[in-house]
Amino acid sequence: MNRRKFIGIGAGVVATALVLPSQLSAVDFRKKDAKAFADKDIKSALKDLYGTDATIKGGVSISAPDIAENGAVVPITVSTDKANVKSIAVFIEGNPEALAAVFNVPATSIPKYALRVKMRKTGHIVVVANVDGKLYTNKKLVKVTIGGCGG
Amino acid sequence: MRAIAKLKNGITTVRAMAHHPMLSYLVAKKKHKKAKFITHLTAKYNGQLVYDLYSTQFLSKNPYIQFAFKGGKKGDKIVFYWIDNTGESKTSSAKIR
Amino acid sequence: MFSKIVKTSIFIVASATILVAGSFNAQAEKDRLALQHYMLAKFKNPVANRAEYFPYMPLHILKTQYAKNLKLSDFLLGSYAYDLDARKQYTELNEFPPYVFNVSHGEKLYNTKFKNGKSFKDCFPNPAIKGNYPYFDTKKGEVITIGLAINECRVKNGEKPWKYGKGKLADLDGYFAFKSRGQVLNVTIPNAAAEKAYNAGKKYYYSQRGSLKMSCATCHVQGAGNKLRAESLSPLLGQYNHFPVYRLKWQALGTMQRRFKGCNKNQGEQPQKLQSKDYRDLEYFLAYMSNGLKLDGPDIRK
What we know:
The structure holds three protein chains of three kinds.
Chain A: E1 15-16, H1 29-32, H2 42-50, E2 56-57, E3 60-63, E4 67-68, E5 74-80, E6 85-92, E7 99-104, E8 109-117, E9 123-131, E10 134-144
Parallel strand pairs in A: 2-10, 4-10
Antiparallel strand pairs in A: 3-5, 5-8, 6-7, 6-9, 9-10
Chain B: E1 2-8, E2 11-17, H1 25-30, E3 38-45, E4 48-55, E5 64-70, E6 77-84, E7 89-95
Antiparallel strand pairs in B: 1-2, 2-5, 3-4, 3-6, 6-7
Chain C: H1 2-22, H2 26-42, H3 50-53, H4 59-65, H5 84-94, H6 100-111, H7 120-123, E1 135-137, E2 142-144, H8 146-156, H9 168-179, H10 192-206, H11 216-222, E3 227-228, E4 231-232, E5 245-247, E6 252-254, H12 256-266, H13 277-289, E7 299-301
Parallel strand pairs in C: 5-7
Antiparallel strand pairs in C: 1-2, 3-4, 5-6
């Protein structure tokens, strides 16, 4: 088990409450597609985010557990092998709103991201990659249980 | 932001964790608090964006992120920035090792 | 001839004394080794030993999702030692453990001065002290746990005691545990009173309790490796070593005493106040059972 010592890692320079104007993204999804973040089902969120829900199966990989240890911290990794990826969106079936995260993919960025998400119940994690307007997709079923001792 | 940035074979891999409660609407209501979660999280290298995430209440508490980008030099800085739905924001940095 | 008899007598008396001095932990040693023997045999080959140890586990799960040939040190991972899908998630979360902020906070608390100018450093000059707990205080005649020692330090210096289950005390416990990683657990039983405390803890562990009439052993000895609803039950062996624990369910760091409370509730019994005599004797017994294994707290668990 490779466990690292984290105490020595400095938090670096911290400046609070300073909103830097230069945080310009390729697309500000929260401004442009605010409605997508409010949609309850994946189809509507997809339509509001990318203008269509027509997707091509494949080209996207999802690594996620079969049975989540705890629905509050589900570690997943999403990636695509396609070139010219503009953005990657992560949807979670069964959550109050379907859209969980959207990545803009900058030029030098390798389109592979790991994160930890909340899942309210058993359902699919659906990942969509926007490759020059074409939407590639894949999904993975994750079981979320209420544990016997966890209660 | 706790971060480790490593350079290997021309690619810099970053693993980081933000210190943030990521309180969802459901849990906030139960605790009689306001929902509070990061909505935008970025990382920049040499002024260029290398990570650009629009997040929601559905990221876990103390959100963990991992990403990689082509380039980077040992000793250079990666600058992180996040802002949440209440308007609070934080900037921090980490050196590439 | 006479000198030879004297020498032999002295030798017999000397060895008898050593035997008597060491005998307070004689039964405990038997218990500890019996537990190791049982666990190693149980998890050597779950598929082959299904009838004896895992009669209710589906064969295909034992074949595809269980590890085998577990070594002693593997037991430090709890149920992640044998449950392979859960272990993958544990490994991923461990890439950047959620308790990093707790340990940093603990370090800050360690260095923060009390109102009287002193700090925890005066009670614990070296933070790598987790390996010294719990111990039986022969003067006071009771088990001293790390939680008790932390609050004793606070009260001695005019500060209010902290809550025993979570928050600041857990964070400081976490810092001590982090600094003590790698130490080999070596709890001792120095006298008859300590042996009594060990036996009290052992009795508690094996007694049925609560509305569900389950003992600790029901889940963590007989049940280890089996499932309780959706939970993969963790073995007693190696369990003490990873505390305090960042439980995903708590989304927070909590102490061993906090877990006792939760377990009692799950058994359908009213929990005791943390650091009660029963809970401290229990912690003493639990720690002794994992003697010989390394400390590796804090850690992540479900």
